[in-house]
Amino acid sequence: MSKGSQLTDEQKDITKKIELIKKNIGLYPDFPVPGVSFRDTFSILRQPNLFNTLKSILIDAVQTHFMEAECIAGLDARGFLIGPLIALELRLPFIPIRKQGKLPGKVTSEGYTKEYGKDTVEVQTDSVTPGMKILVVDDLLATGGSLEASCHLIEKCQGDVIGCLVIIEIESLHGRSRLHVPIHSIVKY
Ligand SMILES: O=P(O)(O)OC[C@H]1O[C@H](OP(=O)(O)OP(=O)(O)O)[C@H](O)[C@@H]1O
Ligand SMILES: Nc1ncnc2[nH]cnc12
């Protein structure tokens, strides 16, 4: 490594924390359908110290890459485990992007295809203030179908998607290429 690219103590600390998180993510071959290698973050949530470490990594990522966020939107269901955590810590509002038929009131919908099936997501139309700078969070980016639909949904309600933050990115599926906003992933496979 050249002198100019030496890591600060803070960066080394984050790198160590990320390695620890990566080591503790579960792997289930052929779930939920043959051919899918399922990456399971519930193994982190079972261990409070690790969950706290993950929380600090996520907060650091938002403060480093998405400082301008005015609101956090999270995807049903696993994005709900981290979205409110980030939003509350940063005293920002949280908006749920829900699977179809679960949200009351006027909703905006968007259909999509993901790594192992088809789905539709919805948002309460009046939960998005036009022009609001929104960071979309989820546990995992695979084909990108879920995040692409969620970003589109927010944009249909005139929200300004400033980026997406995920814990895991499955790089071989190239989901990132479907998204036109900055993407930050913590752990890559
Ligand atoms: O990048 P993609 O190919 O779209 O796949 C990623 C999405 O798939 C999973 O959610 P899922 O729809 O299985 O819902 P869940 O959180 O309720 O398990 C995951 O939590 C992401 O949201
Ligand atoms: N490989 C995978 N592991 C966990 N969740 C997923 N959602 C879509 N693809 C997934």
TrEMBL record:
Its EC number is 2.4.2.7. Pathway: Purine metabolism; AMP biosynthesis via salvage pathway; AMP from adenine: step 1/1. InterPro entries: Ade_phspho_trans, PRTase-like, PRTase_dom, UPRTase/APRTase. It catalyses: AMP + diphosphate = 5-phospho-alpha-D-ribose 1-diphosphate + adenine. Residues 43-169 form the Phosphoribosyltransferase domain. Gene3D superfamilies: 3.40.50.2020. One of its GO terms (molecular function) is adenine phosphoribosyltransferase activity. HAMAP family: Aden_phosphoribosyltr. This is Adenine phosphoribosyltransferase. It comes from Popillia japonica.
